[in-house]
From TrEMBL:
Coiled-coil features, chain-numbered ranges: none
Keyword Lipoprotein: no
Catalysed reactions, as listed in the record: Couples ATP hydrolysis with the unwinding of duplex DNA by translocating in the 3'-5' direction; ATP + H2O = ADP + phosphate + H(+)
Family matches, as InterPro entries: DNA_helicase_UvrD-like_C, DNA_helicase_UvrD/REP, P-loop_NTPase, RelE/ParE_toxin_dom_sf, UvrD-like_ATP-bd
Protein name: DNA 3'-5' helicase
GO MF annotation terms: helicase activity
């Protein structure tokens, strides 16, 4: 064959390549250029390996050779880089195949698998065994060859799999094994039945066409074959493992991100760290790449807060570059609402107040009126979630409103009194020249709805938007062609109404990523009732790329056994939620006093001097505790910075924040402090235990979610501490 060639890197091959000396990695980058240009250049020593119809070797460096799998035509896949001396040894222990179930190309170097597993065994042998242990038995002897093959396990690995004795060995194997083999083994190990694994793991990634196990060209194009596509991908993978998310999506992630147009709103759910945000970013790139060329920002990417919007902007630029990013409006949901209201010159001179400030204002008003029937928090929640949340405009509508899940029943007379108080409160805020974010969202939703109705009326009258715009100067064009929402579980009904009105119903209108287990602002909605119908277009991710199995188990324990919604009228759960990462169990430590706990925080962070301070965070339940931790760390000469609405005030420091501030973030090591009874959940909810049990349960559940979010931000290590009595949510 003459001329150039295509060279791709196979997923997982990078794991071994990353261990090679730096100069060899540099040489691989040079090599790929030369190979692409002319694989037959004499300097490359390109030749077929004996006994392997499809396997070739080529020179990368004086001491290293690349192993390349030929996938038809001029397509080659880089599957390994080996020391020159080892290339011709054990050629019979190198296996590759097209997986008959997934149809993906798989490569297995049995020698390297054995070495990696052996390394775990010798590490273990070096540790003194505290108590005599029973002789190990294989984790997978209960499964037959046929069962494992039907589930999509790679045949070449069966021998090794039956020798796996410990979870640690299993995790080493799955880290290097083809994706489907790893996923199946972990699910079986986690106790799922063969039928469940077939249903939940294998079937979703099974090939849609019939698999010809000799047709490598077709196999290369299937989502189950995870390879790099761009030339630059290889460099990024070789530079840092950190960038894997940009290149190797899990087949389930890939299917969602590159799905052909969805006929309407689509939704992806999944536990923390399963890559919902990553999928949303890839989907944005996919949508932008299918837009007509232009300059307009046709895709809206929105999330809950400012800090996360800034993070999305950074990650989208990393993933897709400025040409894609310039077509995307990235803004947090309340800012979007504010912009819409400001554009309509409708109240834009007002200042916002947050919920805590709004509750104080309720309290001040109730004190002035000597009104004791309802407390300030109840009234604020009723106004925010029921009246504004459901966009109730009149007293009569409020009388009719269903207050599903909102707590104690209130009579017609109560509603009349509450309505009166709300009117008075709203006037009070008007006079002060302030309003809450929720009022802004509700106003924005109305404005967008109004705009939508006008657009539809003009369409019905067959007046084109252009003509209307020319003649009246008013634009009723939809603002965006596609809307992508992250952290969807925390958006309120008014936010959804605004988004729904903003974009006409149609293919790829809304793409929604969220997890109800992480809802921390009490905004439970049913998307269907808000005109967002996701039936038949929802997906679930179950593999966590962030947290270790140990942290994940502890976090699930925190959630208890309550019920969780699917952002619609259905239920969601964390069945199948798993991780391939392994680490220490979360440490639990109690102290007699908060002062002693603060000393414990300082001591622990001093011990963690092997990593950068910015990889460490301390999370506390209450605002005043943030300053207290910051001060104590400062006194110990440890740089600390609190996390504000825009993110950490200083980057190169230990970050300290309330649990709410950690939404969507991740850290290598975390201390979750103050997890004491009375703080988690806050003691104030006890007043509702008898008077309003529904509200009590709702608030307790929200507090569980908050702790769940905090615990799942940690990648490697989490330490949970308290003073006095530990929180009832802890084991
Ligand atoms: N396919 C992948 N390969 C490698 N890393 C990945 C992949 N998908 C996600 N990750 C990594 O996993 C981590 C979590 O991803 P992401 O933030 O998208 O999860 P999430 O589901 O949105 O989490 P949360 O709900 O907790 O906010 C990130 O560090 C991300 O880079």
């Amino acid at each position: 064959m003459q001329g150039g060639a295509t060279l791709r890197l196979l997923d997982k091959a990078d794991k071994e390549i990353l261990k090679l000396p730096r100069e060899v990695k540099g040489a691989i980058y040079e090599f790929q250029h030369r190979f692409r240009k002319d694989p037959h250049s004499p300097a490359l020593h390109f030749k077929q390996l004996k006994g392997h119809a499809q396997l070739y070797s080529a020179r990368v460096h004086k001491d290293y050779r690349a192993l390349l799998l030929h996938a038809g035509g001029s397509e080659y896949i880089l599957v390994a880089v080996k020391d020159r001396k080892d290339v011709y040894e054990n050629l019979d222990r190198i296996k590759y195949q097209i997986n008959p179930v997934s149809g993906g190309i798989e490569f297995i170097d049995l020698v390297s698998f054995e070495e990696n597993i052996e390394a775990t065994r010798s590490d273990k042998a070096a540790e003194p065994a505290p108590v005599p242990v029973a002789p190990p038995s294989s984790l997978f002897t209960a499964f037959t060859r046929e069962q494992l093959l039907d589930l999509g396990v790679s045949e070449a690995l069966l021998g090794l799999i039956w020798k796996i004795n410990t979870e640690e060995e299993l995790l080493v194997l799955t880290d290097h094994a083809p994706q489907l083999t790893g996923d199946v083994l972990l699910a079986l190990h986690d106790g799922r039945s063969v039928e469940e694994v077939l249903d939940q793991i294998t079937t979703p990634v099974a090939a849609e066409d019939e698999v010809d196990t000799t047709d490598y060209a077709t196999a290369l194009a299937r989502p189950a074959t995870q390879v790099t596509t761009e030339d630059t991908d290889l460099r990024e993978v070789l530079e840092d493992d950190f960038w894997r998310w940009k290149i190797f999506l899990h087949p389930t992630q890939l299917k969602i991100a590159e799905h052909r147009p969805y006929s309407g709103p689509a939704r992806v759910t999944g536990g923390p760290g399963t890559g919902k945000t990553i999928v949303a970013l890839h989907r944005v790139r996919h949508l932008v790449e299918r837009l007509r060329s232009g300059e307009s920002k046709d895709v809206l990417l929105t999330t809950f807060n400012k800090n996360l919007a800034a993070d999305l902007r950074r990650r989208l630029l990393d993933l897709a570059g400025p040409d894609v990013a310039k077509r995307v409006e990235i803004v947090n949901i309340d800012k979007l609402a504010t912009q819409i209201v400001a554009q309509a010159a409708d109240g834009d001179r007002r200042r916002w107040i947050d919920d805590a400030r709004a509750v104080q204002e309720w309290q001040a008003m109730l004190d002035e009126l000597d009104e004791r029937r309802w407390d300030a928090e109840f009234l604020h929640a009723e106004w925010s979630h029921v009246i504004l949340g459901m966009a109730i405009a009149t007293r009569a509508d409020y009388f009719r409103a269903r207050r599903a899940g909102r707590g104690r029943n209130i009579s017609r007379a109560d509603r009349a009194a509450i309505w009166q108080l709300v009117e008075r409160y709203v006037k009070r805020l008007d006079t002060m020249g302030v309003w809450t974010y929720r009022q802004v969202a509700e106003r924005a939703a109305r404005l967008e709805l109004d705009r939508k109705l006008k657009r539809e009326a003009f369409e019905a009258a067959q007046v084109s938007s252009e003509k209307l715009h020319r003649e009246s100067g008013i634009s009723h064009h939809p603002r965006y062609k596609h809307i992508v929402v992250d952290e969807a579980q925390d958006l309120s009904a008014a936010h959804w109404k605004m988004l729904r009105a903003m974009i006409p119903e149609g293919p790829d209108d809304l793409f929604i990523a969220g997890d109800s287990h992480q809802r921390i602002y009490g905004n439970q909605v049913s998307l269907g009732s808000l005109g967002i119908n996701i039936r038949g277009r929802s997906h679930k991710l179950t593999l966590s790329y962030r947290t270790t199995r140990e942290i994940l188990r502890a976090a699930q324990g925190v959630l208890g056994d309550g019920e969780w919604d699917d952002l619609d009228d259905g239920r969601d759960d964390l069945t199948g939620y798993r991780s391939v990462l392994h680490g220490a169990r979360p440490a639990l430590q109690g102290y007699a006093t908060w002062d002693a706990e603060l000393d414990g925080i300082v001591e622990q962070i001093r011990e963690w001097d092997d990593i950068a301070p910015a990889a460490i965070a301390v999370c506390v339940p209450e605002r005043h505790m943030v300053a207290e931790v910051e001060n104590r760390l400062g006194r110990a000469r440890i740089m600390a910075a609190s996390i504000g609405p825009d993110g950490p005030k200083v980057h190169e420091a230990v970050h300290v924040g309330t649990m709410h501030r950690f939404k969507g973030l991740e850290y290598q090591r975390m201390i979750i402090a103050g997890v004491s009874e009375g703080l988690v959940p806050a003691a104030r909810i006890e007043q509702y235990a008898d008077s309003d049990p529904l509200r009590y349960r709702r608030e307790e559940k929200q507090a569980r979610s908050l702790l769940f979010v905090a615990v799942t931000r940690a990648r490697d290590t989490v330490r949970i501490t308290w003073h006095g009595e530990p929180s009832r949510f802890l084991p």
